[in-house]
Amino acid sequence: MPDKPVAEVVIDETRVRDLLAAQAPAFGGGRLEWSNDGWDCSVWRLGTDTGTSTGTGTGAGAGAGAGAGAEELAVRVPRRAAAAPLVRHEQRWVPVLAELVAPSGLSLPTPLFAGSPTDTFPWPWSIVPWFAGTNAIAVPRPQRTPWAPRLAEALARLHTPAHPEAPRNPFRGVPLVERAETVSARVEAGSASVTPETMRALAVAWGAGLSTEPWSAPPVWIHGDLHPGNLIARDSELVALIDFGDVTAGDPAYDLAVAWLAFDAAGRSVFQVASPHVDAATWTRARAWAAAVALILLQQSDDNPDYLALGIETADEVAKSAAE
User: Fold this and answer.
1) Is 97 a member of any domain?
2) 166 and 212 inside one domain
3) Over 90: is that where the pLDDT of 86 sits?
4) CATH code at 305?
5) Among 100, 134, 168, which residue terminates a domain?
């Protein structure tokens, strides 16, 4: 059974060109090619030779800087009503967050144009620069280890006290106890993709997170969907974080779960050493969040083999890290 929500509006070349012509004619008229459809948005590459670089998977597929040329653009269009607030969040907050993260050398998908609803299209949409590079989900874990210090620095810069008007998400970055019932149900449901021993390890990791002290400092900015599919690399170097639709404020442990989602033991060690400000309790909660995300991927990736594989890999990393 497919897990990706069905598009509520047809997003085709005619619709995208109509939006460009009506609101952003300076960007229209060039080459336009579909890139991918995620759960929330359809992404179209605009005004560049689409054969010169690899795509960027299920995320925004674009970002500012990091070597992207002035004509390397993407149009990001919501495919369902639930995605409209996420695009608004990106339009308002990504420029702020990009300034925070910039010293790390990573780029974020800062909108170049913020489109608005029209008589024929009900939601906001954006034009963002395109990243030439490879989606990290296609890069083997051992090859990601050199990225760990830069990602750790970027998150340290991002995880600063959030603006009082920052978006709030009831599922991400919240106290673990608020998700306990849902995660327990997922543990009980299990998964045929991992062994019973691995499933028990996920349950133990989640339980350890519940038992440790919660985040008590002011909420900080968090990406809210930080996994390999939202990392872009080029020439063996991490260059960008994409897809900030779930940006929110809360416990940084949610983002730090990337230590298990993206890295093997060696990379995770480098990542943790490069994050000396993170205390033991936060790492315990981060591992718990990694277990929770692994369960989601294991149980909701019927139509996406890459993300099912990510769930299996993450579950294995959580299980193995009990001995670290």
Assistant:
1) yes
2) yes
3) yes
4) 3.90.1200.10
5) 134
196-211 vs 280-299: helix crossing angle, rounded to 10: 140
- In one-letter notation, the amino acid at residue 235 is D
Q: Are 278 and 243 in contact (CB under 8 A)?
A: no
Does 173 have pLDDT greater than 60? yes
Q: Which helix (H) or strand (E) holds 128?
A: strand 125-129
Q: What is the pLDDT of residues 63-85, one digit of tens each?
A: 333 333 445 899 999 999 999 99
Q: What domain range is 263 assigned to? A: 136-323
Q: What is the pLDDT of residues 241-286, one digit of tens each?
A: 999 999 999 999 999 999 999 999 999 999 999 999 999 999 999 9
Helix (H, G, I), strand (E, B) or coil at 207: helix
More confident residue, 50 or 151: 151
Q: Is the Cβ–Cβ distance between 288 and 208 less than 8 Å?
A: yes
Same domain for 43 and 126, yes or no, is yes
Tell me the C-alpha distance between 260 and 263, whole Å.
6
Within 8 A by CB and 6+ apart from 216, the residues are none
